[in-house]
Amino acid sequence: MFVSLRYLYICFTLLTMAFSLRIGTYNIHGFNENKSDYLQTIINNHDIILLQEHWLFNSQSHLFQDQLSGISSYSVSGMNETILKYGRGFGGCAILWKTSLACNIEPVKIDNTRICTAKFKLLDAIILLCSVYMPCDTRYDDHNVDAFVEVFNDIFHNDICNNVTI
What we know:
Deoxyribonuclease I, Chain A, four-stranded mixed β-sheet, 4 helices, 7 strands, globular
């Protein structure tokens, strides 16, 4: 079996990047100015952050780049902006990455407010990262079990999984 030097180089580079890529996840329970310093500390120690429960509307997604330095982001809201909201927000997922990251990032739109997905293209490979907010009470609430099944179906039975390393 013949293996080209280019193939070996790509494999070596991908393995090196995969093992040195620092990915974190954080359920922030509402993003605001009071939490931006702590989130910035997390970002400083990671290349990519998968964020859950930011409680922002889609129109507020710019706040990540406004209040945090050196990042780009993609987010989805768990709330409908056309409905008047009282009290605290809920849901929402985001993927934050350092702007210095040496890869191409392509947000992937899925029609599910519990999933924020992006393709990270590293050389000849594509890595699909998902920030997912799942319901926590499945023992007493059958609707939450249905939400789990729906989220997994949306991730794995969608065209986004074609030609992607998961």
